[in-house]
Amino acid sequence: MATWGLSACGGGGQTSQGEATTGTEAKKIRVGLIPKGSTHTHWKTVQAGAQKAANELGVELLWQGPIKEDDRQAQVQTVQNFISQGVDVLGIAPLDAQSLVPQVQQAIKRGIPVLVFDSALGSEDYSSYIATNNHKGGQLCADRLAEVMGKKGKVLVLRYAEGSASTLEREAGFLEKIKQYPDIQVVSDNQFAGATMEKAFQVSQNLLNRFPDLDGVFCSNESATQGMLRALEQAAYRQGSYKFVGFDYNQTLIDAVNNQKIQGLAMQDPFKMGYESVRAAVAIYKKQPVERLIDTGVIMMTKENFQSAEVQSLLSSKVQ
Question: How far, in Å, CA of 99 to CA of 170, rounded?
Fold first, then answer.
């Protein structure tokens, strides 16, 4: 992984790890992080990791995101508010790859360096990108679903939301990889779950009615996976003969893996994502070398490997 020396704007002289000097007074570095949302377990865990790093480095963390993950305007407004407050570094997990590009350019013009986390920005105007390799995660899901299906049958893909770069990458990785299994047919891949579990549940019910003979299902984020799980449970769908792989995790989904209602969950490391975002922000502010791309990892959780050190380590870092 390459290390880039960055000349990030917005920094002053430095004293301790999280302090900069302005004249004769020391002040804490202010890092503003804006997630896609604030209700999912994923974002709460990202925040916990970010706060741990902020505490260790002695910086002030400002964390604010939309309540719903389809509220693009709320995210744009939060970016503008953080710019007006004069944060020292701005970090964004874009709801839409394109909609925040003008605000990012505005921040940079104001001397505020920008990092991107979780989901890509439709611009190269950032200092570092901290995220899961989502394309790889989608491929892991395809391989797992093919394995448990016996490499044959009909598959449904439930997407998350238009414009969301992270989930689009997962879906692309899944569809690319599943083509390598000639006896698996994708019967639908153009439906979106939407930003809430309730909406995902409604879309899932409609899809199960349209495709009553499915053998496998893939969902590309936490709310879509949980909405589909609920729909499958309520419909008593084919008495459990389907196979199901999803992305992200919370306690409901973990229980479903152990009860064999879900055969696999792609696990990101959201705690590490938040932690590394704050560490990168401090390095950027101090004009220290920082990696242009920081890959926070992805693994597949199954009932068979649930007790493994790798899976348990990720579970232990989630919000308590």
Answer: 20
